[in-house]
Amino acid sequence: MSTSILLFAAGLGTRMGDMVKDKPKPLINVAGKTLLDHALDFTVLNGVGTRMVNLHYFGDAIREHLAGRDIVISDESDKLLETGGGLKKALPLLNSNPVLTMNTDAVWRGPTPLAQIMNAWEDHMEALLLVVPKSRAYGHQGSGDFTIHPDGQLIRGSETIYTGLQMVRTDTLEAITADKFSMNILWNEISSRSSLYGTTYDGHWCDVGQPSSIPIAENMLNV
User: Which of 36, 111, 132, 173 could staple 201 via S-S, CB 3.0–4.6 A?
Assistant: First the structure.
């Protein structure tokens, strides 16, 4: 059975400043390729089914960029729904459970991240997040997101950083009544049942969240 994926491309990208005055952050170029295309390249993989991109800010530009490709659009032009709400809206068109979601504001060097997380998935999990240790994370300004236990369970902490890629069951998501909410709401619910897991990415990862991260990302990719 294949697993569908939603790529988040609807955000405002405000930390990019003037770079997003005339285009959305996913269409910013890093090392000669848009951030969105960096992410999409990883989705051409056996076991990945429906590929979906959501859009809001400069949505027409993203739609035009994707024209002619086998990619489904989840249109949030009328209301930005955040990550959890965006996934919930997309569920009717994502024909798998679990599903994958991936942020589009990062670049990677190393093993294919989707292959790693799909290979690490086990049926007892409700959510599996791909995390990276600080020593192999670049351009990230936060203190960290999670601590990973020896059995793979995640708790809030600062030892590892969430890479923006997860595999998650949709059952709990369907029970949330709000239409606009962060993925953190879902993770907290899953964590309360000791069913939030993580796996550590074996390569290098760069958060491209602000203009200063672009040269850092390009240097990482060119090593």
Answer: 132
- CATH number of the domain enclosing 152: 3.90.550.10
**Domain membership of residue 139 as a residue range:** 3-221
The sign of the torsion formed by the CA atoms of 111, 10, 83, 134 equals positive
Query: β-strand 146-148 against 154-156: which pairing, if any?
Result: antiparallel
Distances (CA, A) of 55 to 28, 72, 217: 15, 11, 24
Q: State both tokens at 47.
A: 């076991």
The pLDDT value given to residue 68: 97
| Per-residue b or e along 174-196, where b marks 16 or more CB atoms closer than 10 Å to that residue's CB | eeeeeeebebebbbebbbeeebb
Q: Which of 187, 217, 201 is nearest to 105 (CA)?
A: 217
Total domain count, the chain: 1
For residue 56, what are the contacts with CB-CB under 8 A and spacing of at least 6?
A: 10, 11, 12, 76, 77, 80
Using one digit for the tens of pLDDT, what is the confidence trace for 180-211? 999 999 999 999 999 999 999 999 999 999 99
Three-state DSSP state, 120:
helix
pLDDT-derived band at 141 (thresholds 50, 70, 90) equals: confident
